Amino acid sequence: MSKPDPYDYRQLLQSTSSNDLTKRRDVLQKIIGAMTLGVDVSSLFTDVVSACQTTDIVQKKMIYLYLATYARKKPSLSLLAINTLHNDCNNSDPMIRGLALRSLSSLQHPKLIEYLPTPIRAGLVDKAAYVRRVAVISTIKLYKIKETLVKGSDIITKLYEMLRDIDAQVVINSIVALNEILMDEGGMSLNRQIMIHLLNRLDDFTEWGKIIVLQLAAKYAPESEQECFDIMNLLENSLQNVNSALSLAAAKVFLNMTEDLPQLKQQIYERLKIPLLTLSLGSHKESSFSVLKHIFLIATQFPTIWQDDFKKFYLRMNDPDYTKKIKMDILSVLTTQKNFKEIIVELSHYVTDPNNSPEIAKYGITVIGRITIKLPLWTDIVVVQLFSFIELEISYLTESVLSILKDIIRIHPDSAQEFFNEFKRIDIQTIKDPEAKASLIWMLGEFGQNFLDAPYVLEAFVEDYKSEQSYFVKIQLLNALMKLFFKRPPECQKILGKLLDLATNDFSHVDVHDKAIFYYRLLSTDFEKAKKIVLSQKEELRNFVEEDLTELHEKLMFEFNTLSVIYGKPYDQINLQKKKIEDEYEDDEDEDEDEDEDEDENEDENSNENENENENENSNENSNEDSSEDDNLLQNQNQNLNQNQNQNQNQNQFVSPTKKQDLLGDLYSEPPKKTTQEHILEKVAEINPQSYQQKWVNIQNQKTHKFQLQSKIQNKSDFEKKLISNRIFVMASGVVGNQLKIYTYSQKSQTNYFVLIEIIVDLNQNFLNATFKSEDKSFLLLFIDYFQKNIVSN
Amino acid sequence: MISQFVILSPRGNNLILRNFRNDIKEDTSDIIFRKLNFEKISDFPPVFHENGINYAFIKYSELIFFVTSRFNISSSFLFDFLDSILTSIKDFCGVFNEQTVIDNFGLIYELVDEMIDYGAPQLTETKNLKKFIFNETKLDAQELKNLKSNKKAKKKSKKSISSDAKKTPISGVFAGGGFQTVEEIYIDIIEKLHVEFSNNGSLISSQCNGLVMIKNFLSGNPILEIGLNENIKIGSPKDFQYFQGIFLEDVLFYHKCDSSKFEESGVLQIIPPEGEFILMKYRVSETSMNLPFQIATNFEEFGQNKLEIRVTITSDFEKAMWASNVQISFLVPEISLDVKCELEGNDITQTAKFQKQDHLVVWKLPRFNGEREESVRVTLTLPLQKKNYPKQINAFQETISTNTQLTSANTLQLIKGKIGPICLSFDFPDYSVLKMKTLKTTDQNRSYVPTRWIREFSKSDSYFSWV
Predict the structure, then answer these.
(1) Which CATH class is domain A689-792?
(2) Cβ contact (<8 Å) for B43 and A322?
(3) pLDDT by residue (tens digit) across A283-317?
(4) How far are the Cα atoms of A462, B379, B402 from residue A303, in angstroms, in the given order?
(5) Do B199 and B234 share a domain, yes or no?
(6) Which residues of B touch A312 (CB under 8 A)?
(7) For chain B, how many structural domains are there in total?
(8) Which domain holds residue B263?
(9) Which residues pair with B284 in a beta bridge?
(10) A559 contacts in B (CB within 8 Å)?
(11) pLDDT digits (tens, 9 = 90+) for A331-357
């Protein structure tokens, strides 16, 4: 399949006689192959459509596949196909009737409004089950083309009738169709009769069909407790099934049925416990992962059910990292006073096991911290255990320990003394992670009165102030020294003076600067008042925001057996953009209809822009606001301490929900970018305009991407500077109307390969359209990634 | 509701791309490929959300299979469905790798089109699909040769042939001029052992997860009656104090399997679907489980900077039996200057080596007989003294470094903390808790005796000891 050229295929297609089955199949297969690879073979449309007049079903299938892919692009030509397909819908062979109807309904051509309803209606009452199955699904497609053709028509009634079809798959497809067509009304309407009819036929259905029926059953409210038991008895087999999707679907019915019967809840959970456990231990790591996520969710509601089985969730050597994490989460929920020590010992093994990735080791420490906060009985033992990790002198372990100790100490201030006793073992110079540093500094400021060396440790940080990159560490340092100053003035005065001097002259970050000035004024106005403010008594901490997830988990229980459980968030929070995107598609489809046979894509784009121009003003204002929010988010990335400082509160408002649940999610945000290490591009690159043009024409490896810019481009030269600082050099640029056009070039490091980009920025909409061309094909994706990271999202 | 089904090559090319609902414009292959190759996360989660699209993928023989959806559907459904598509393709193509996908993509499109219509799952059982599939399976010369040699191998040793070796397409075995159907059935009982010992050799946890997998190549609609062990109880041993048989904590069945007589007589009845499927999954209770191997580790210090690790494996099963491909491996600290491995017995088939680049000690025994004890001695030479801190910035730092002079007891503890767990891996043919006792096939229309390939074996699945 090297270098396919549509023209060759046309010749092949025309030269092969339609009687030579093998050869013709071969040609068609090549065309489909090229299509799959992403080569545009739509220019062959006429030839392929005319090849459709064959009786060979293999060819027909391939042609139908081709039509379904390209009909949208060639609306005028696809009329030809419609005729052929329409005829095939009346073929004597039921398989051809079915295939033709399936393809016809997939064409998405406006003319279909005329052509489609008749064959669908005929298909719904076809003798052959195969055709009926296809016809039922086709009603959804018809609905998508024009809602009124289906909604409120006799098709709905027909579909309800077909719930009693003799063919099991027709029944299932009818449910699927009704659910989608009536989605606004909450899907297919359900009464006792239909429900019982479907449940009685359960054994006829495929496992996927059963799942669909069980999804319906989950919505069904039984009339009596007896009926509820009857249904659950019927589903016993489905629950005990090797197919985890079926088993979870049955579990959901059990959970929903007993929603109002709290006395049964415990019993139901007991019933689910064993099969879910078996499925979670299965050999397919992906589906085990999905079941484990559900076990975690149920365990947050009823921790007792798997408490005796906690060892089943011990990690295996060959578990992938995502499985290891969810297993540790489950362990943290299952920890009780009885198994506390066993679990902590096991988790400690995971931290020190050199086979585990740093990510897993660090997660182990986080989970140990989480358990300790939950069950504070053995804090002293845990602290000793945590110190044993520091002794291993692995810097990421030390850093994790420091971060987690801070949380433990906030809840159990008594542990502070132990911490300072062990403190001498820490080699401060190895701590690089800003969060760990900040955590350490906070502890010194908060409890430094009992630790002789505290001012001098802080002094070491002040000495290093200028090389400190993280603004957050600097702010913590200011806070800590202020606090310690009021506790131990003589030792701290000089150090604090030095720090304030450094920080007030530090313009790298406005918050650091402001805070330093604020403290400085506070001190110079009224010493006693300042002391009162800085050392104000804090409320005792009982729970972290992170721990208070009960509400979230209750919400997730309503979305049991959906992706929300995997993501750990209600779906409407994940899918914020969904609405927007769907709208976009609708727009698109409308346009297709309006234009009818107009193929000109350029015009398409233009009209789109005009439409949007009216809204531009509004969206610009919004985007400015957005971008300032984004800034705050970025700044907060390295920040996990939800300090009780007034000043920080402002920022915390913008901390995304994920950050707030940090104890459950990734502890670590992305480390700062390393720009010095082996840059992917040459520092200097030279190319003259002629060869640029030549290259532009000659390079075949190209990709076009559309990016949404985070912030508005204020002026052209700044943007160009940004490009150049990222080793993307400008060949030519200019502004036309509201479009900024830039041609750039870069050279892949240590090679002679160039990468060229044509950048078109829509200044109003903040869209950046870029066509990348790379002489080295393998480099293209990497470069696009680099471009996105450094130019678009920065 | 599935939007797309895609098979992606290891280089990120689409081998198969089927859009069912045309509601996705994004280059999803590109997105998934970049997530898997350029993100810093090791083991990228197999399901994720981006820009309103949900992705679920599985990897199989270097290829990435994925589906996308705009709906908040069940993740287990996505994975199980992906698996069933994969199984069908395997059934129809026999072998499965990038080349077969390329050679048979017409066939695969046919299959996928019958299995999914506008995103809704349709019939996926091989038997139902067969009627609608017209493309013939294409195998290249090498694979045909493999097929034939497999057939020869089967004749040689009946017992050891695995159903993995059965790579015949469902349409039959290529014999001379055309495909010829063979009446065969393969039944595998596979038990995976997950065992965790503490550093003093005591058992922390043990699990035995089993499954019965069938590959059915019988024509017609025969009824299959499988008789497993008769003395089985499902549930906790606490509930049946005087019962002497096998305890299973749980059993799950294929959805069309009749298991009503299972607890009473160990018999399962089913009209098996064609091709590959899992008949049952089970968990053996800890009390009914046997541990074939014990692991013991001893440490001894020599001189100032030498540490000897002695690993002993004891087999606890009948003398006449043996496990194969036994391998013991563990990580040693990166700071070790020298690592020497010494075998204690004089069995020349064994090897023990230190793989320097991975800091891994690997000890291999091609065959481990019952009632035996084997050991290896690994000597680590460690750097003599702990390095001083490079720079001391003030008086305070000085106190740190003087205080952390380590005593020798501490050193051993520290070094032990950096030695990885002792991992044991093995295959163990004919070793399983559940056994196949009887197998009957009855076909109302004819009487025949199909070829039956039955295999029972255990496999290690994370069998290790902490140190």
Answers:
(1) alpha beta
(2) yes
(3) 789 999 999 999 999 999 888 889 989 999 999 99
(4) 47, 46, 48
(5) yes
(6) 205, 207
(7) 4
(8) 184-286+431-465
(9) B208, B248
(10) 72
(11) 999 999 889 989 999 999 999 999 999
